[in-house]
Write a structure and sequence with these properties.
Length: about 270
């Protein structure tokens, strides 16, 4: 389908080490849309499903509604969808019917700030005798995430040509959020080899997360691996140049989100 609307380009730059996530926006036309999409920049159609059915959709575009018909929206949910499909170095293109919704989304993205700090540490020591060799290694990671944002929504604009959010007569939503989460993990590994035939690895990992709260500040994951080369035993036929027995045990997990450790503030029930 041919496009005659102006849409908004959002450029998201994410810096891993003490960097910021911010947005730079500009309006672009049809030729620029085609050029950017040919470079692999994704286009997100933020209209509603009924609009997609009525007018059709742009080929190879993503379809994620932002504003529902009653004016409600899930800003954080939309951000998560954007992060799943965007290349932080290329950016995204937002598309709606008149440009009013994409302008509001762009301004909200410009107000969102996130900073991530990551530290990686590692050390290892090798030990060897005539029949035995061993390696002891220790590694650790530390994550500090801080984010803040402001969102505001208005309705009852005088006309479609007016896209400034201050022109809306009714404020339907206004909010601000701040967040800070800290995660850390450390793992110690002991590898041993005897006669270059028997191998044993022991490991233990501990993860810490501010989301866990004071009730459980850390989670531990043990691990063990054992293997032995059976082909070096005298009774194994010489045709087996490599025959190894292996056994392993380990535990793993995923750290919770930053709000998973919060207590339930309200609950309700319905009797039918």
């Amino acid at each position: 389908m041919k496009l005659k609307r102006i849409i908004t380009l959002i450029l998201l730059f994410i810096f891993i080490l003490t960097g910021n996530s911010y947005a730079e926006t500009k309006n672009i036309g049809n030729d620029e849309i085609k050029r950017l999409m040919s470079l692999g920049i994704p286009l997100i159609d933020v209209r509603r499903k009924d609009e997609w059915v009525s007018t059709g959709v742009i080929e190879n575009s993503y379809h994620h509604t932002f504003f529902e018909k009653d004016g409600t929206y899930d800003f954080k949910g939309f951000i998560n969808k954007v992060k799943n499909i965007t290349n932080s170095e290329k950016g995204i293109i937002l598309f709606c019917r008149t440009g009013r919704r994409t302008t509001a989304i762009a301004k909200a993205l410009e107000k969102t700030n996130e900073r991530n700090t990551i530290f990686d540490l590692g050390a290892a020591h090798n030990f060897s005798t005539g029949q035995m060799s061993a390696t002891t290694s220790l590694s650790a990671q530390f994550f500090d995430r801080k984010w803040e944002g402001i969102e505001i929504a208005r309705d009852s604009f005088g006309q479609n040509a007016v896209t400034d959010i201050g022109s809306g007569s009714n404020i339907t939503l206004a909010g601000e959020w701040l967040g800070n989460s800290r995660d850390a993990g450390a793992i110690v590994t002991q590898e041993m080899s005897f006669l270059d035939q028997h191998y044993l690895t022991l490991s233990y990992r501990t993860d810490y997360s501010s989301a866990l709260g004071s009730a459980s500040r850390s989670i531990g994951y043990p691990g063990m691996r054992f293997s032995t080369r059976l082909d070096k035993l005298n009774f194994i036929p010489y045709q087996f140049q490599m025959l190894k027995f292996r056994a392993a045990y380990g535990e793993s997990g995923v750290l919770p989100a930053h709000t998973d450790g919060q207590n339930l503030l309200w609950s309700g029930s319905c009797l039918v």
